[in-house]
MFS transporter (Pedobacter zeae), 455 residues
Amino acid sequence: MTLNSITKPLDKLNIFSLKGVQMKTFHITWLTFFFCFFAWFGMAPLMKIAREQLHLTKDQVGNIQIASVSATIVARLLIGRLIDKFGPKLIYTWLLVLCAIPVLLIGTSHSYASFLLFRLAIGVIGASFVITQFHTSVMFAPEIKGTANATAGGFGNAGGGAANLFMPLIASGFTALGFCSTEDSWRYAMIFPGVMLLICAFLYHRYTLDTPQGDFKDLKDENIKSTKNTFLIAAKDYRTWILTIAYAACFGVEITVDNFAPIFFTDSFGATIAIAGMVAGIFGWINVFARPLGGIVADKIGKTRGFDGKTLLLALLLLIEGIGLIWFAKSGNIGMAIFMMFVFGLSLKMANGATYSLVPFINPLAVGSVAGIVGAGGNIGAMLIAFMFKAKAGHATKNIIENGHNVQKDLIDYTGAFTFLGFIILGIGIAVFIFRTIMAQKAAEIEDLVLTPSK
């Protein structure tokens, strides 16, 4: 791929096309993001095995879940500024290589402390989302940015669901082939996502460009590559912070469910690790169509009602999410819990897409920094929720039959935590609904970007 292919951002998204640097970059970006999420949440469905082998307490499990999302906060803030300055290709390549190290090495953990540190380091890979959203933003025209961002994000986020579904199968495969015991299977399973990150690093560096016009190092146009302090530009705009809170209420909850759903289904409904992973995987796979749907609907509304219409959609989706979460927590059986997880998951992931249909229009010269701050908000939300889950988690013991023997198991009950979380999301949805008018008042300067197709 050379700089001879100088083109403009695309005004259409054909997901079945590989023609042009824009579509090649789109597909490599979402695929890379998919494996980043797969690696990030690869341990979630295997935590029950690791918990038992390492003799982790309820509080230690809570700390590990907090660690898995907390490092991403700083990483997303930093990455947003770096890609504004150096471009997505270079930053993404290094992020993938560096994060592959803790993914490959977490299987060497034999203590709570080492496991916690590796889980913390793996969390940095969550910054990949910011690069994905930046890259699709610069590759596509204004009227299609929401759709492109949401589709790439949705396809990539499905990696979390894929991890819940396939990691137990990969672990079982290593055991069946005689490489390890069941107790050690989680250690071997984590090799797979680590290797995939290294493969993606090669593909990303080899086959993508920073922009349709070429790589940042070859560009002189400051409308594409900003030399200003884009982080301060983004931080001074209050709309950035409203979207940050909104994203905490949708993506923050998504990370929480990815981390806690497998344990919730095993401990609350007696599901096996494989069944719990498969059920939780449904939640992740909703991303394939739900997040793109949120972006598509937001773009459609934006063409007629602009910034205010998109923000109204976001508020309504958060309200539905909150109600669905409360109902999910109160489900009396696994069938109802699965159905309600689909309902609130659909609205939650559409809200993710709707949020990032607004992000590129806060300030076109600081897209990376705005995306980084808002993205970090999702992880701040996840971290705060993890603290809340740790505080509100119930504890119980239950006698079960395992291999013909009566065994006493320690169980964790997250029913109260999910209920409380639902009410918090309802409150945030109401707040976004109220503040949408204030946000729209400053939207006049960007309204033409939302409403007017590119020339």
Summary: The longest strand covers residues 394-402. Confidence is low (pLDDT under 50) at residues 1-6, 444-455.
